[in-house]
Amino acid sequence: MNLEYQVLIAVALDLALGDPRWMPHPVKIMGRFAMMLEPAARRIMPSARAAGIAAAVAVTGCSGLAAWALVRLAGELHPWAADAMSIFLIYTSVAARDLAHHSAEVFRALEARDLELAKKRVSWIVGRDTKNMNEEDVVRAAVESVAENTSDGVIAPLFYAFLFGPVGAIVYKSINTLDSTFGYKNERYIDFGWCPAKIDDLANWAPARITALLIAAAAFLTGMRPRWAIRITRRDGRLHASPNSGLSEAAMAGALGVQLGGPVWRKGKLDPMPFMGDPVNRIERALIPKANGLMFTATAVAVAAGIVLTKGMRGIL
Prior knowledge:
α1 crosses α4 (79-93), α2 (26-44) packs antiparallel against α3 and α5 packs antiparallel against α6. The strands form 2 sheets. Strands 1-4 form a two-stranded antiparallel sheet. β2 and β3 form a beta hairpin. It has 317 residues and is mainly alpha-helical. It has helices at residues 3-17, 26-44, 48-77, 79-93, 96-111, 115-123, 135-182, 194-221, 226-236, 245-256, 287-316, and strands at 260-261, 264-266, 269-271, 275-276.
């Protein structure tokens, strides 16, 4: 089966099933493996930064090798088994349905006028203090989560799947998992997490910029503000400390005509995050399903473009 059809089926499975809790997810396995390696790497290597580099190489290398071996072993049974394994691995790397589900849970709590429940649910998807949030803060956090995760939870794994197949998708997820596990600028991980953070920035450089364009395309297709999405991305996308994270948030802010970002509290300390976008529209709960609509539309455009480009490259080569 051609790669583009494997990706298409994998995305369809994600939209239909999400990530069932009972299923052993590769990301959980990679996260546990990374945590298990940390103390051993710190004992063996002479510096925390060297230990972090060693852990990153081990996790990404083992993840890629495991994905390749699973597809190869499945192929020894039957070619269809190899296709099925490839589809499964790509499916586990994409998280569109779960992203929409978690933000929709926040929306439903707000619709029920249960702010405390909404704050609890949004705390599951953002890394900030939620205790003193008002409804506007909760909505902003949920929309920002959708925007950021559209890039690293959906578009980036699709980008690497189309380029390098299931191995590429899994290696990308291992890089993303390493950053989520170790990429913190605190005393423990400022050096150990240096390599995971840097390779995550590098891996997300192209997907983050593609995501901003896809959100603009989605805004065009859904009757929102495509020109604003591009303009705000160019104006505000690089204000974020990360070279990538601000781009999709700025594009989402422009597409929705709202102002996202701004200072937030994390572990009792004020984080002076930049504002992105212009406050043309109010921050209200209806923005959450609109953001999800943009995410799903951007995903559809990404899959369609990936199929066309993959087929075109195959024809050329």
